[in-house]
Known about the structure:
By secondary structure, this protein is an alpha+beta fold. 36% of the residues lie in helices and 33% in strands. Strands 1, 4, 5, 6, 7, 8, 9, 10, 11, 12, 13 and 14 form a 12-stranded mixed sheet that branches. It has a two-stranded antiparallel sheet with strand order 2-3.
Amino acid sequence: MCSLCLNFCYSLHFIFFIYFFIIIFTLLIKQTKIKKQMSRLSTSLEKPFTKTLQFKNEKFDKKLKKVTQEKGWYYYVPSTVEGEKGTNVMVEMPFTALWLLSAQSFSGYNELEKASVYSNEVLSERDLKDFFPKNTGENVEDYYARLKSYMMLTAKMGKETIATGFYKDIKDAVVSKGGKYCQPNYFLAINEDGTTEIVRILFSGGSVETWIPFSGNKNGLKTKGVSFSGTTEKEKGSVQYDSPTFEFVDVDSKYVKAADAAAQTVVDYFKFLIGDSKTEEVLEPAEAEENDLPWNN
């Protein structure tokens, strides 16, 4: 009798041990899955580009009687010291990059408030159709309403929200605060040592004047590299300024393949931001700088 009781107790202990082991094992698996999901989430949210380039005109200091800024393409490097301004680094021309994707936004500077004007970036309806096909059971009206919601811009001046809406509807309000049309484009830049990196180039003011007609050649954008080769003189009233010039150039096939992969990285980034309604894009200016055209300074 005692022997039977002991065997029964041992059996119960064994069953409890197995049950406990299964629970712990299940919890560990769930925790691992959560960590992997969080890892993918944080990776998706990381900006795919390494730097943001903007074209800047030459600046001449009348008091010092010298040029304080040469015309060309610059990217901003924040200071590592709190409270200190960063540095604008000039990119040596010519440089070559492969086009990946374009968007629309606002950028600018309010001289009175000493604050940047900026907005989120939105894609064209054509691109949105490619990236976000109609869901099963979704009617056409609801589908286009969903696409339109992805094209909403929120423009800010500093931390103050100026307006939210479609570009044509909020343009006047944003322009009155110092904002202007901006076309962010993503490229795979080819460095001098042959390495590549994804960069974001903001076309606005003088640079968008020459970029828009050039980028109208969609076949060239998709099959060739773009050489940022120089500048051309422009004139508005009595003011002279420079705009950048571009050329299509042949590139090695390995860079074309790399650009295809890079384009998918940029597309995935936008799809994550736009498609996940629980994720809010953090709006921030490219830099706290004034507009690049002479009559805006």
